[in-house]
Amino acid sequence: MKTKHADPSRRRFLAAGGGALAVAATGLPAARVAAAVADDGTRPRPTPSQLRWQREQLAMFVHFTVNTFTGREWGDGSESPSIFDPKRLDAKQWARTAKQAGFRSMILTAKHHDGFCLWPTKTTKHSVASSPWRDGKGDLVREFTDACRAEGLDVGFYLSPWDRNAKVYGEGKVYDDFYIAQLTELLTGYGPVVEVWFDGANGEGPNGKRQAYDWARIHRTVRELQPGAVMFSDAGPDVRWIGNETGSAGSTCWASVDPARVPRAGADDPWTGEALQQGDPYGKVWRPGETDVSIRPGWFWHPEQDEKVRGADNLLGLYFTSVGRNSKLLLNVPPTREGLFHERDVESLIGFARLRESMLATDLAAGAKVRASAAQGEAANVLDDDHSRHWSPGADARSGWLELEFPQGAEFDVIRLEEAIEHGQHIANYRVDVDAGDGWKPLAWGTTIGHCKLDRVPPTRARRLRVAIEFAYAAPRLARVALHRSPTGAWKRPDYHGE
Ligand code: FUL
User: Where does the record place the F5/8 type C domain (predicted)?
Assistant: First the structure.
């Protein structure tokens, strides 16, 4: 459970953010809407780390701790380290699977709420050093990072601020020092880290007290020790939570947010799930949403859930509702008590990769003739995956269109659009029309594009296809237009999750 989001401001947010979209959607002259918003150069853009983070598209979460052995989801901190004994632990199997499935980084729960540390920390005895695993000489964080690097995967850590074991939890600066010491060990002892994941849960510790986390100090520590890492929490500062654990980003999804509506990272703030799902087109900071979801009903492995592993087509559904909605998918795969990914999970992951890769391997728009309403940069730039090149109707334009012509016709059921987000996210309304030889017909429309937007449509045959940008807050820039055929008929249900 993340921070609970109280409801009162929900209407306030929708009135502010949603209202702006409604104005744009009414078709009022773009200039009237644009007058109210900042100019191109002042809208937020991603940092290089945020850009790299988003372009990875797929990251794997690994939840593993004493809970794996007790069958619980939240340990209470009283677990004996003697129960932690994953006899066949093989982090290389995790990393190999992640790599084969097309994931680019892995994030390990170095410490969950129960306080048990997966590395031999100097800060507490409540760690692998007190367990029978590898005779108390093991370091799971080391095995994990070595395995990731051997496969060319980046690494990240989850270090729960809520610690139900630490006696000093709730003691103010004493716990801050303890937590910062743990963070420092992780960020200085194991090479480059690309993401640090801060959970919003903030319950009581063993003394019945709560801790007010010193976020400013925590953030400073990460910046100093790993300047290239992005920090996740409900509220950022670099990457925000998408607002639910069901794998669903908003079909409207802005990377920008308004920090005034997010008072403190991880705090009990007034954001609603919907507001996190959608972001804010007027937001002054770039803080894209991360979609964390588990391949199983729980975050940790439970034997009775072996029958409930999401199938390959279900995972493809998650891909559409996360990566395909301008978010990043952080998919959790929990190792078993033996310390291995279960064969069912592995099978689903490999199946997911096959479905996804076979869909993306063929671009039915390749070779199309492209023309545009106006062009600054070749219109045909949208036909290749080189992100450094894009099409724009011009710096002052707030609308424009692109037309693709397929001499042989094209048949597809997935439309992929990508904005050149290194210049910011600006497109607020678009429409896709097709002509199969009997005139233009509307096919799809949407409110945001961002890094990637995947629209599932009924199987469609077209001779011409037009992408009309109806309104953008600043110069619209499209880096990619691609057409695909989905392997599972995923188009049949807009929220298709494969069940
Ligand atoms: C939540 C935690 O309470 C869950 O146990 C899990 O770690 C999830 C990713 O974040 O807030």
Answer: 347-486
Q: Which of 302, 327, 360 is the last residue of a domain?
A: 360
Q: How many CB atoms are located within 10 Å of the residue 425 CB?
A: 30
**Any domain includes 496:** no
Closest CA to 352 of 378, 374, 381, 323: 323
Q: For residue range 318-327, list pLDDT tens digits in order.
A: 999 999 999 9
pLDDT digits (tens, 9 = 90+) for 41-68: 789 999 999 999 999 999 999 999 999 9
pLDDT for res 235: 81
**What is the domain count for the chain?**
2
CA distance 286 to 279: 10
* Cα→Cα distances 165→74, 77, 122, 285, Å: 12, 4, 15, 36
Calpha distance 412→8 (Å, rounded): 43
Q: Which residues pair with 445 in a beta bridge?
A: 431
With beta carbons less than 8 A apart as the criterion, state whether 158 and 107 touch.
yes
CB count within 10 Å of CB 388 equals 8
SS3 content of the chain, % helix, strand, coil (to 5): 30, 25, 45
Q: Check: CB of residue 261 under 8 Å from CB of residue 17.
A: no
Neighbours of 171 (CB within 10 A): 16
What confidence score (pLDDT) does residue 425 get?
Answer: 98
The confidence score (pLDDT) of residue 236 equals 87
**pLDDT for res 404:** 97
Q: Is 199 in the pocket of ligand 1 (CB under 6 A)?
A: yes
CA 374 from chain centre, in angstroms, equals 34
CA 127 to chain centre: 29
The best mutation among 199, 244, 291, 300 to test binding of ligand 1, ranked by most ligand atoms within 8 Å of the C-beta, falls on 199
Of 293, 278, 290, residue with least CA distance to 323: 290
Does position 99 have pLDDT exceeding 80, yes or no?
yes
Mean pLDDT of the chain: 89
Q: Tell me the C-alpha distance between 259 and 365, whole Å.
A: 39
DSSP state for residue 311 in the 8-state scheme: P
Pairing between strand 239-241 and 369-372? unpaired
56 lines ligand 1 (CB under 6 A): no
138 and 98 within one domain: yes
Q: pTM for the full model?
A: 0.91
Q: Which domain holds residue 180?
A: 48-360
Distance 421 CA to ligand 1 centre (A): 30
Q: Are residues 100 and 198 in the same domain?
A: yes
What is the DSSP secondary-structure string of 155-167?
EEEEE-S--SS-T
